User: Which sequence fits this backbone?
């Protein structure tokens, strides 16, 4: 059979005449309307790229066969790449702090700093030595020249005061 060159307008007319049927055919193959549309366009472009066609007697069949081969290639590629990808969980959250959470934390930090600043000097000093410097009760007691029991009482007093101010800023 000899190769016959078709004009672009002849190919466009052929494609437009069969586009809906090709898209429906591809939807059955790839199960996605958007992908079916893309593959039908690719089939059209492939037909446009041919210099000479030997299947002039059945151009619609040639167009459908091209579309079918494209769908097979797409499915194979999708199956290969699908094994490498993971589906996203709908409940997946961003690991970074969100702006509204940051605003809340910022307010809480400000309240905590105000609560610490409002403590009596020795109480504040004990709290900072324990929580910031991570000294033991015995180390704090030795450094300040007070009993461990006093360190414990002052620390409890400081933490209760800070906790109360975080719960009720008017306290």
Assistant:
């Amino acid at each position: 059979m000899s190769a016959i060159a078709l004009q672009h307008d002849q190919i466009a007319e052929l494609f437009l005449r069969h586009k809906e049927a090709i898209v429906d055919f591809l939807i059955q193959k790839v199960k996605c309307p958007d992908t079916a549309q893309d593959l039908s366009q690719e089939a059209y472009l492939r037909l446009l790229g041919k210099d000479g066609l030997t299947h002039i007697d059945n151009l619609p069949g040639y167009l459908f066969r091209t579309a079918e081969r494209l769908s097979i290639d797409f499915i194979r590629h999708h199956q290969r790449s699908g094994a490498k990808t993971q589906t996203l969980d709908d409940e997946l959250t961003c690991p970074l702090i969100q702006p509204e959470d940051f605003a809340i934390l910022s307010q809480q930090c400000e309240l905590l700093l105000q609560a610490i600043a409002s403590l009596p000097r020795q109480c504040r000093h004990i709290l900072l030595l324990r929580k910031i410097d991570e000294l033991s009760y015995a180390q704090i007691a030795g450094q300040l020249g007070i009993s461990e029991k006093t360190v414990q009482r002052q620390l409890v007093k400081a933490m209760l005061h800070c906790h109360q101010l975080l719960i009720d800023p008017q306290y």
